[in-house]
């Protein structure tokens, strides 16, 4: 089946864009408040791909054209250590470009998107950007989800006797499972679980157990165990059924003698079979309290920062067409008597029909009636507003994506010659 991952990053972060290698996640969004990581840093961002499939299309949008006579802005996808050609290049005066691909990816491969440009006298103008990836699984009815950590200055796994929990999308982690879990927007069955680290995860003679949690309980069948020399592992043949509204997260638990948890990054990925072929989960939210006024959220990002006050900082572009339905909101705290919070899906800076309002003592709501269709290069965001001074609250959202399609590969006609 086909999926679109609408992504982005480097918001107002022109200084750290300079250089040659700035990787970000393939399946989930980079930090939209900026923070590129050098490719040679153990903290660089990547995803482990949990199923066989093909990378089909890439769209790249920037706020600012490079400038007359300036070097181009370049985006490429790296699969299993090799860049996929041709590279996607934006030259002045363009701010948007798409490229078709037909590149095979194997389960367990490392994948990331990398932005770059050549510095010097002709350094291009930089700013916000977003990109979008078209993915197609090799087997009908299979969909994928992924998490990556992008925390190069902290340990990637816990010490012995401690458990950390990771969101199924984005890069959030917590010592509390309920803080990291996100809500499924549809029913399905998890079939495989992959873990990949940028380096060995710890020193000592202990072990690190990685698991899937559903509704706050560990799934015993889905455990990947690392010793001190392991950097990858997986478990396949799973049958973890989940329903719409169930919560999902990943975990890591240290045991035995762990003398040092290494600094680096780690990625989790699951392949699942949705109950309805062609449907897939998208999700996100804010792990800290919402701000007052109107704020905006991106797709595929569970944020460790308050959502942005400018929609341009959260918009993400699409590499194809898709439709959203069953938009779900879950608040950590009810708005309070006489108060409410309203969340809307937005398209190209305008409201769609999809809306959820949560009032009084309620903490959740779903729009199961309205849908919104996005076309190639349309922009997606979510807005949040309040009526009255609503109680401080975190927010988690999810929705069902379906009807996905991206442009078929362009076949260039070649002239025939007679000798």
Give the key terms:
2% helix; 419 residues; 6-stranded antiparallel beta sheet; mainly beta
Task: Summarize the SSE layout with pairings.
Layout (H helix, E strand, L loop, with lengths): L1 E8 L4 H4 L1 E7 L21 E2 L4 E10 L10 E7 L2 E2 L4 E3 L5 E10 L4 E8 L11 E9 L5 E6 L14 E4 L6 E2 L2 H4 L1 E2 L4 E10 L4 E3 L2 E8 L2 E10 L5 E4 L4 E3 L4 E9 L2 E4 L4 E9 L5 E7 L8 E3 L4 E2 L12 E2 L3 E11 L4 E12 L2 E11 L3 E4 L4 E3 L4 E9 L7 E11 L14
Parallel strand pairs: 24-26
Antiparallel strand pairs: 1-10, 2-9, 3-9, 4-8, 4-10, 5-6, 5-7, 5-9, 11-23, 12-13, 12-21, 14-21, 15-19, 15-20, 15-23, 16-22, 17-18, 17-21, 24-34, 25-33, 27-33, 28-31, 28-32, 28-34, 29-30, 29-33
In short:
The protein is mainly β.
Question: What does this protein structure show overall?
Answer:
The protein is mostly beta strands. 2% of the residues lie in helices and 51% in strands. It has helices at 14-17, 177-180, and strands at residues 2-9, 19-25, 47-48, 53-62, 73-79, 82-83, 88-90, 96-105, 110-117, 129-137, 143-148, 163-166, 173-174, 182-183, 188-197, 202-204, 207-214, 217-226, 232-235, 240-242, 247-255, 258-261, 266-274, 280-286, 295-297, 302-303, 316-317, 321-331, 336-347, 350-360, 364-367, 372-374, 379-387, 395-405. Residues 10-23, 29-43 and 409-419 have low confidence and may be disordered.
């Amino acid at each position: 089946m086909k999926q679109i991952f609408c992504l982005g990053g480097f918001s107002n972060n022109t200084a750290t864009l300079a250089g040659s290698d700035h990787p970000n996640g393939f399946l989930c969004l980079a930090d939209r408040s900026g923070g590129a990581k050098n490719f040679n840093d153990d903290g660089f961002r990547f995803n482990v791909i949990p199923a066989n499939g093909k990378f089909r299309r890439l769209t790249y949008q920037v706020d600012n054209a490079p400038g007359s006579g300036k070097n181009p802005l370049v985006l490429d996808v790296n699969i299993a250590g090799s860049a996929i050609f041709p590279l996607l290049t934006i030259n002045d005066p363009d701010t948007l470009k798409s490229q078709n691909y037909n590149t095979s990816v194997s389960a367990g491969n490392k994948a990331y998107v990398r932005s770059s440009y050549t510095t010097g006298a002709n350094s291009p103008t930089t700013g916000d950007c977003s990109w979008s990836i078209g993915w197609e699984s090799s087997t009908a009815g299979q969909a994928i989800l992924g998490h990556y950590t992008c925390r190069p200055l902290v340990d990637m796994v816990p010490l012995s006797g401690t458990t950390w929990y990771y969101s199924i999308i984005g890069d959030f982690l917590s010592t509390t499972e309920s803080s990291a879990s996100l809500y499924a927007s549809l029913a399905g069955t998890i079939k495989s679980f992959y873990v990949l680290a940028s380096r060995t995860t710890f020193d000592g003679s202990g072990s690190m157990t990685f698991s899937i949690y559903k509704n706050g309980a560990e799934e015993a069948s889905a455990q990947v165990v690392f010793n001190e020399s392991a950097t990858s592992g997986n478990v396949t043949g799973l049958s973890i059924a989940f329903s719409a509204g169930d919560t999902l997260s990943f975990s890591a638990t240290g045991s035995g003698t762990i003398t040092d948890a290494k600094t680096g990054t780690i990625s989790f990925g699951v392949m699942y079979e949705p109950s309805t072929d062609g449907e897939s989960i998208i999700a996100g939210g804010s792990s800290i309290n919402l701000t007052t006024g109107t704020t905006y959220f991106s797709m595929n990002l569970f944020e460790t920062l308050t959502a942005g006050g400018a929609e341009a900082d959260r918009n993400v572009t699409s590499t194809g067409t898709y439709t959203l339905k069953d938009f779900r909101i879950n608040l950590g705290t009810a708005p309070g008597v006489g108060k409410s919070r309203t969340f809307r899906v937005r398209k190209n800076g305008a409201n769609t029909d999809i809306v959820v309002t949560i009032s009084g003592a309620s903490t959740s709501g779903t729009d199961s009636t309205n849908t919104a269709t996005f076309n190639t290069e349309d922009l997606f965001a979510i807005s949040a507003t309040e009526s009255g001074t609503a109680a401080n609250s975190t927010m988690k959202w999810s929705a069902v994506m379906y009807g996905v399609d991206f442009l078929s590969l362009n076949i260039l006609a070649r002239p025939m010659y007679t000798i």
